[in-house]
Predict the structure.
Amino acid sequence: MLETFAKVRWNITFIEEEISKIDGSEKIKKKILNICAAISSVLGKIGEWKDAKIIAGIKKELNRFDDIIGKIEDDDENGDLYMLLITHVADIRFLFLSKEEQESVLDAIKK
């Protein structure tokens, strides 16, 4: 599970670093960074909390991105933020799918 948590951390760090380099609403960027900080805080509990509690915390915080993604989906001003989020939030969610679910997703992509 540590490898999965490391991949989550990598994605969150990438979002945090890239967000300052792309155009978009500063208000939305701040919301995104707050969610990233919350996920980093959950990851900081590795070794202290059970894996299931960490996973639940990550998923809870990931769900907060859904509202932002929905609001900026068709917003030209925030198109780069949208692409950043849909890519990396999906990557993180993929990590928590079962092997069968992952294979199904990969098969669908290949078609």
Notes: The radius of gyration is 15 Å. The chain has a mean pLDDT of 93. The chain has five helices and no strands. Residues 51-72 form the longest helix (22 residues).
